[in-house]
Design a protein that fits this description.
Blueprint: E1 20-25, H1 26-32, E2 53-57, E3 64-65, H2 66-72, E4 79-80
Parallel strand pairs: 1-4
Antiparallel strand pairs: 1-2, 2-3
The chain binds zinc ion.
Zinc ion (ZN) binds next to helix 2.
Length: 89
């Protein structure tokens, strides 16, 4: 990817800088936060599946797919939590 601008950064994602993210899966998102439909970066669809890994910030304002998490965690200083403190409400 290099220094070339990534099309996924054209979305409104700046507020995610330095955010802490909880790992979860598609099944949990479908159950607890059905309003989250797609990855905020690449628009990958959330599937109701425990085999699809996702990352959500503490305020559950969006979700990030596994690939984007790995691609952007350094650039955005994303911190991974243990997944036990998700405030689904
Ligand atoms: Zn993505």
């Amino acid at each position: 990817m290099g220094e070339k601008a990534d099309w996924r950064l054209l979305n409104d994602v700046e507020y995610l800088r330095d955010k802490c993210l909880n790992p979860t899966d598609g099944e949990e998102i479908a159950k607890h936060a059905p309003e989250l439909k797609t990855c905020i970066f690449c628009f990958e669809k959330v599937q109701d599946s425990c085999h699809q890994r996702w990352f959500v910030p503490e305020d559950v304002s969006c979700c990030i797919c596994e690939e984007c998490y790995h691609d952007f965690k350094t650039m955005f200083h994303l911190k991974k939590l243990d997944g036990w403190d998700i405030g689904w409400d």
